[in-house]
Amino acid sequence: MSRDSAIAEVLLPLALDGPYSYRVPEGMALEAGAYVAVPLGPRQMIGVVWALKDKASTEKTLRDVAHAFDMPAMPETHRKFIEWLSAYYLEPMGNVLRMVLRSPGAFEGPREQTAYRATDLVPKRMTPQRARVLEIAREGFAMRASELAEAAGVGTSVVKALAKDGALEQVALPALRRFPEPDLNAGGFTLSGDQQQAAAALRAVVAQRQHKVMLLDGVTGSGKTEVYFEAMAAALAAGGQVLLLLPEIALTQSFLARVERRFGSEPAQWHSDVRPRERERVWRGVADGSAKIVVGARSALFLPWKSLKLIVVDEEHESAYKQDDGVPYHARDMAVLYGSIGRFPVVLSSATPSLETLVNVDRGRYGVVRLKDRHGRPELPEIGLIDMKRATMDPGTWISAPLFEEVTKTLAAGDQALLFLNRRGYAPLTICRACGHRLECPNCAASLVEHRFRRQLMCHHCGHLEPMPKACPSCHTEGKMVPVGPGVERLAEEAAQRFPEARIAILSSDLARGTLLRDAIREVEEGQHKLVIGTQLVAKGHHFPHLTLVGVVDADLALESSDPRGAERTWALMAQVAGRAGRGAKPGRAMVQTYLPDHPLMQALRKGDRDAYLNQEKKIREGAGLPPYGRLAALIVSGADGAEVERFARNLGMIAPLADGIAVLGPAAAPIAVVRGRHRWRFLLKATREANVQAFLRLWLKDVRPKGSLALQVDVDPYNFL
Prior knowledge:
The strands form seven sheets. The chain has a seven-stranded parallel β-sheet with strand order 10-11-9-12-13-8-14, with helices on both faces. Strands 15-25-24-16-23-22 form a six-stranded parallel β-sheet, with helices on both faces. Strands 2-1-4-3-5 form a five-stranded antiparallel β-sheet. It is an alpha/beta fold. The longest helix has 16 residues, at 193-208. It has 19 helices and 29 strands. Helix 1 (76-89) crosses helix 2 and helix 1 (76-89) packs across helix 10.
């Protein structure tokens, strides 16, 4: 910084559209992108120097920058990414920066850690809890108190008490473990001819060191992962960092083990289940470039990348890449944006690519490489339809006679079967047979879902919990509350009755998370469970080699929704879950229960004709002017007072400007009119591809200032229409 550049424009992680000005004190050297602490009112905040200006450009009395952190500056590419994302989604830049600064502990500097290991001393008092701690402590390396306590299922006070008795001793651990260098030749995989061609095409794109988006379009089980590993290796060989995005935080140990086998070291992980200390380590490792490979959920995009050279978006079609709360961004689209700004390639991988991606391929904006056969096994699962209008079923059951017979044969052969139902809990609705009262959430306009394993009723919108009442809250009649419809827990109950010899696993995010979920998935992969009951969690990239039958219990759940992507999502989900079968030595098959067997989607599934169905879907979307042939944006007005929300929404509608190519639909009460005690009204903007939606929204909302409990959220390219 020159002598005259004494003003630092500092962006703070607040709802601010731009930076605040601070004076750079004598002797402090700063550069654009530097992380600093600055005073704001009575407190200090961490921010980023967005620009440096001449002292003479302002006459204001400015406060001094308090501290400059000794860490690599945020690169210009990352700052541009924040600016572009802010402009596209009409979010204050400070809100976007907040997602980058999610690990404030990383700024405290490396701290030496205290760990514990077992000694030869026996504690004066032995309890089962203490015994578990000592057993684990004797098994391996020294562990921190919290890690040792969690592994033993006890509180940290038990660990501290054992240390006081001398049964455990304290040892010092390094402040932060270094990330090992990947070994690009550690675990090469024997690729088929098609895989070799696809890998060569991706490596060639990486070698060009330019921005290009490539779709890796391969059927389930075709070995897409091993192919994009080769692209990752090429980017690492060129000295860059690599980000592998996955749609769910439930990263399976088997998948992470595949990454470790290929590159000789465990990758860095980034998702909401990562502990704070590890988050600090990963954040700093990404910032200084020592973390070469990061496998993470969508928020990993916002890590302060020093030299990112490739992003791989696995299962790119997944709606989980869209964030609805806070800053509503789509990680796949923002990965493409980041690659464009940073001038590096992006690989989108899927067996069921999104229509947006396929249309970009049609237009020549994206390249494509295809894998048409399964690795080592050419046959895809045969898919059969069960017409539920004709199938025989006992009252109160959900597994039809044809599906029961197929599961029975599969289990008798010693193979695994999967029953798929994309509905969590025991039952989606509980009503009183005496008066018809339904149990609803007190905070939302939604029914409470029974979770019988937990003995609770739960709202899936706000998280409200309450016990199941013995009597109807309305008419006070006892014994008349009955569940309506099935969830996976109810399906598992029926399966246990009808297949009593089978060991059953339930894979649902409601029942297990983190280590418990990863252990359950590992046990299924190893074949320990013969019958699996699962939600959409099981459809996402898992490799179950012993699974030969998939039964879809209700394929029509999302087919008739008002969501313009509903049919596409149903197609992707059905194809993905059917693709879990037959990935091992034996061929697989899928049976789909549906009341709409003649629906074009169901017929396309039966015939395995993806292109015919998607071409028809493209024509429907194009005719309706819907994405990817048109654009959408949503405005959601919410507040504590329903009348006030409606009045504000109607007044907002009256000042909407007129513009060619843009239609404003609404306002109307949202389909779920109350969430978390807040009433909700919605607008939907429907525009041509050429229309400048952001400019229209800025013009419309420039003088709008919600007051009191009112809030206004803008969602560009919405995926949630509730």
